[in-house]
């Protein structure tokens, strides 16, 4: 809620114009500082090379894998099929329909000859890393909300087993570094779980899911405390009134208490989820190729650290700002 200004003297248009000008001046000052700081660094900026890491376009040169006569060139369902006959055998090669052929039917080709070329495009390394970051974060947020709400309810339960279990979980998770938890989930729990899965004929679980588990459990502990605080902020009379109307504890909690608490906890939840998106950068230590790990790989091969790390920060900003806008939209809808 913004500060109440009903008792203050009304502000004239000059007041708002002045402080808007101050804001624009500070913004221009910051941009000028960044510009002059980047100019002072003895570094050759090569921004023109960055787009290839978003969307990769390449020309693929197709080479013959067998020696012989090209006996057939057919077009089938958007593809071009080449048939090379050699010593009584036929080698079939299927190419995209827009391939440019460099040989004709009846030509004799040798192994390694260039026979066609086609254009290929696909998402670049940074775009793939951004998608992995988004996927891991969204999955961890969903599981974290479920775990956090359940733990928050257990935290205020009168049942000692549920309450003490919730307290131990929250204190244990909040009191240890996330990086250590990721290591333990992947190298300790992961070894045991993968061994069990393989013993029953199932394959090993990908590292991405251990990362999701670590992030979800880490976030669930913080969400639990946010949920507990939100529930306890609703006046006790609300529960007493609901129970006096004949509602059970579960019904009163679901229909009366939680909707009010939900509106109050949205701002701290937004901060927690934004933090989770940035925390996903730690998953590179268990070989999850999220945005930070992808950027680190590209920096190693391109030797363009400043452009790529600045771009990495901008991409995280896009993700977190979008998430913040979505939660603000939820807040406005909840206040209607």
Automatic annotation (TrEMBL):
Gene Ontology molecular function, alphabetical: transmembrane transporter activity
GO annotation, biological process: amino acid transport
Record keywords: Amino-acid transport, Cell membrane, Membrane, Transmembrane, Transmembrane helix, Transport
Occurrences of domain ABC transmembrane type-1 (ranges): 130-327
GO cellular component, one term: ATP-binding cassette (ABC) transporter complex
Topology of the protein relative to the lipid bilayer: Multi-pass membrane protein
Location(s), subcellular: Cell inner membrane; Cell membrane
InterPro entries: AA_ABC_transptr_permease_3TM, ArtM/GltK/GlnP/TcyL/YhdX-like, MetI-like, MetI-like_sf
TM region(s), chain numbering: 12-37, 130-154, 208-227, 308-327
Pfam families: BPD_transp_1 (PF00528)
Domain of life assignment: Bacteria
Keyword Cell membrane attributed: yes
Job description of the protein: Part of the binding-protein-dependent transport system for glutamine; probably responsible for the translocation of the substrate across the membrane.
Family the UniProt entry places it in: Belongs to the binding-protein-dependent transport system permease family. HisMQ subfamily.
Entry protein name: Putative glutamine transport system permease protein GlnP
Protein's organism: Desulfovibrio psychrotolerans
